[in-house]
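Below is one record:
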Amino acid sequence: MEFQVDASSRMPIYRQLRNQFRQAVARGKLLPDQRLPSVRDLSRTLVVNPNTIARVYTELEREGLLNTRPGLGVFVASPKTELTKKVRKERLVELLDHFLTEAVHLDFSADEVVSLVGERASQFAWQSPR
């Protein structure tokens, strides 16, 4: 998986990378138990401060997307569902409402939105139903 940073972007580098990691996991480009580059190696490759990479790894570990194995490195975590289905659904509804509000303001029809969501959903690695 190749990560990129855009130094001219208004978005902080750590957020650019965090978003890229989250998307790579969601799309199945980074798989559970896959070892990630060390902080030092990734910072050298991307020419960014090692503290930036450490911050990204720490935040993603807090979110449960990564885990550190002492002496072995940082790995993609196996999916866990610690939240109840009700809480997860509430979060998703909140995100959907925000998304749909934006779609309305961008003057998309409901059919266009549904079609685009279906098109984009096919690009993600969905888990089996629980």
